[in-house]
Amino acid sequence: MSCRINEEIEALVALAPKSQEAGGSDTSAFVDAQDYTEVEFVTVVGALAAGKKVTVELYGGHDATGAGAVKLGEQALVAGAGGLGSGVVRISARVTANRGRHYAVKVSSDSAEPLNIAVLALGRVTHRHADNEGALNI
Fold first, then answer.
1. Neighbours of 49 (CB within 10 A)
2. Which of 91, 90, 87, 92 is nearest to 116 (CA)?
């Protein structure tokens, strides 16, 4: 039996839309992935000048505050010659005991201008909700 996407994937705002200072960095909230088999962070960025770069680093740890978190990987987005009106950077990891159950991303850029950013965390649930629980399926 197949399930609907809203039964398989949960979405959480990990970092509300904000203006990041020029050349700055921001870290999302640490998401508790206890009920997930996999997490993915989708970072949306605003306008980026030609040649400028946004880097998204993924961290995992055993503490909800991020204490002792370990970098698991990174993805980058570089604006081409014409610049970039907006973009998306995606990074994911399987949830495993040795990585801990709390995950977050750090978003940084070398932009000379403030950069609009937002981060959405997606979790693939390890269990399925009962039919019609929490969502209207039409």
1. 14
2. 87
Taking only the tens place, the pLDDT of each residue in 1-54 is: 567 887 889 999 999 999 999 999 999 999 999 999 999 999 999 999 999 999
pTM recorded for the entire structure? 0.88
How far apart CA 1 and CA 115 sit, in angstroms, is: 43
Please tell me what DSSP assigns to residue 98: G
Beta-bridge partners for 70: 60
- pLDDT at 115 > cutoff 80: yes
CA 98 to chain centre: 20
b (16+ CB within 10 A) / e for 95-123: beeebbbbbbbbbbbbbeebbebbbbbbb
Which residues fall within 8 angstroms of residue 125, CB to CB, at 6 or more apart? 7, 8, 9, 10, 35, 36, 37
